[in-house]
């Protein structure tokens, strides 16, 4: 799991420990296991948020762990052209690469540790597909796609695209140097990541060495989630066990704890986790396929706008799979 790595964490800025007197450790409310499935043209995913209520995820809506899979030649897969409206998609490539293109002119190659942040807003078409040379050679594919909701006031904003190279992530370490902390968006311990978001969130990828402990200060007005990408360890001051493809939901407080097992079960022995949270929007959510709105009427309008071509058109010079292979989304009941 390369993402962005360093030879030694000793030279990195250190996160300060939260105030042990005035700080309140967030308790673990639940641990759920992500079921497996398939997305796009058939690549394997774990549905990270399955079984968790939307009110507890707010402002997040959906998250897939894509892979980790080692494709043989000819096997790599992507998605066909498809629409989105009303939210932001965040694609974080941990290992491997994928190309993105959208109907608003955004796009590029997302590779080891890079992030694509696409604000769908009022509506956009896009495609994510492996480069031709990767299809021919095969290779490892591992990443995350996260959907971040937009407040009703921003759902009709013009679409926009951010490409964040892996080297642009803010790199930190814990006081004892036992963890590499990559801040992709938001802020932790006074250090900000490069991602620019409409909805206030924090997104972190941390790699903990065996036995390492990470205590993060966390905004009390944000929710808090930890998803295990690989390895095993525990979460919370109470030491609730957590292993790969499991999600921990935390209760209120202003600090959270993640600890790696002394003897990990991943290839490297490390415990890799995604830590995320955001300020809840607190609005009704109407979610249907690739659209996230506030009402059923808005969903019906989104379907009609897509069918009539009002969400954009596939560029004349486009990536492979230029025509959608899936049926258009039906009208919501």
Mind telling me the C-alpha Rg? 19 Å
Subunit arrangement of the protein: single chain
Report mean pLDDT, rounded to a whole number.
Answer: 89
Uncertain parts: 321-329
Query: Percent helix among the residues?
Result: under 10%
- Which CATH architecture is right? Sandwich
Protein name: Pirin family protein
Biased composition (Basic and acidic residues): 323-333
InterPro entries: Pirin, Pirin_C_dom, Pirin_N_dom, RmlC-like_jellyroll, RmlC_Cupin_sf
Domain Pirin C-terminal: 204-312
Produce a short descriptive summary.
The protein has about 325 residues and is mainly β.
Description:
- A hairpin with a 4-residue loop joins strand 7 (97-102) and strand 8 (107-111).
- The protein has one domain (12-280): Sandwich (Jelly Rolls).
- The protein has 333 residues and is mainly beta.
- It has a seven-stranded antiparallel β-sheet with strand order 1-22-19-24-17-14-13, with no helix packed on it. Strands 2-3-4-11-6-9-12 form a seven-stranded antiparallel β-sheet. It has a four-stranded antiparallel β-sheet with strand order 5-10-7-8, with no helix packed on it.
- The model is unreliable at 321-329 (pLDDT under 50).
- It is built from three helices and 26 strands.
Key features of this structure:
333 residues; mainly beta; Jelly Rolls; 3 helices; 26 strands; 43% strand; globular; Pirin
Topology:
Elements: E1 28-33, E2 36-39, E3 43-47, H1 54-57, E4 60-71, E5 82-84, E6 87-95, E7 97-102, E8 107-111, E9 115-119, E10 124-129, H2 132-137, E11 139-149, E12 160-164, E13 170-173, E14 179-185, E15 187-188, E16 191-192, E17 201-208, E18 213-217, E19 225-230, E20 232-235, E21 240-243, E22 246-250, E23 255-260, E24 271-278, E25 286-288, E26 291-293, H3 296-307
Antiparallel strand pairs: 1-22, 2-3, 3-4, 4-11, 5-10, 6-9, 6-11, 7-8, 7-10, 9-12, 13-14, 14-17, 15-16, 17-24, 18-23, 19-22, 19-24, 20-21, 20-23, 25-26
Protein name: Pirin family protein
Region (Disordered): 311-333
Pfam family, one: Pirin_C
């Amino acid at each position: 799991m390369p993402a962005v790595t360093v030879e030694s964490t000793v030279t990195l800025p250190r996160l300060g420990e939260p105030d042990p007197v005035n700080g309140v450790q967030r308790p673990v409310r639940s641990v759920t296991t992500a079921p497996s499935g398939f997305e796009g043209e058939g690549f394997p995913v774990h549905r990270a948020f399955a079984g968790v209520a939307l009110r507890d995820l707010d402002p997040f809506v959906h998250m897939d762990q894509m892979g980790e899979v080692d494709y043989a030649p000819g096997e790599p897969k992507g998605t066909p052209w498809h629409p989105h409206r009303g939210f932001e998609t965040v694609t974080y490539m941990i290992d491997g690469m994928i190309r993105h293109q959208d109907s608003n002119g955004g796009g590029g190659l997302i590779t080891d540790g890079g992030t694509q942040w696409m604000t769908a807003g009022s509506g956009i078409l896009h495609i994510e597909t492996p480069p031709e040379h990767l299809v021919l050679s095969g290779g490892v594919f591992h990443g995350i796609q996260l959907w971040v909701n937009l407040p009703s006031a921003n759902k009709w904003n013009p679409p926009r695209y951010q490409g964040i190279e892996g080297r642009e992530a803010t790199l930190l370490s814990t006081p004892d140097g036992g963890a590499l902390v990559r801040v992709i968006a938001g802020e932790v311990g006074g250090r900000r990541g490069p991602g620019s978001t409409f909805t206030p969130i924090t997104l972190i990828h941390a790699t903990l060495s065996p036995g390492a402990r990470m205590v993060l200060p966390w905004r009390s007005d944000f929710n808090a989630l930890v998803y295990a990408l690989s390895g095993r360890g525990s979460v919370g001051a109470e030491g609730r066990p957590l292993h790969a493809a499991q999600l921990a939901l935390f209760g209120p407080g202003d600090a959270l704890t993640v600890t790696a097992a002394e003897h990990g079960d991943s290839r490297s022995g490390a415990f890799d986790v995604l830590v995320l949270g955001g300020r809840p929007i607190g609005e009704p959510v109407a979610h249907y396929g690739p659209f996230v709105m506030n009402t059923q009427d808005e969903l019906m309008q989104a379907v009609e706008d897509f069918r009539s071509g009002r969400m954009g058109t596939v560029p004349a010079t486009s990536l492979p799979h230029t025509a959608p292979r899936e049926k258009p989304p039906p009208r919501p009941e």
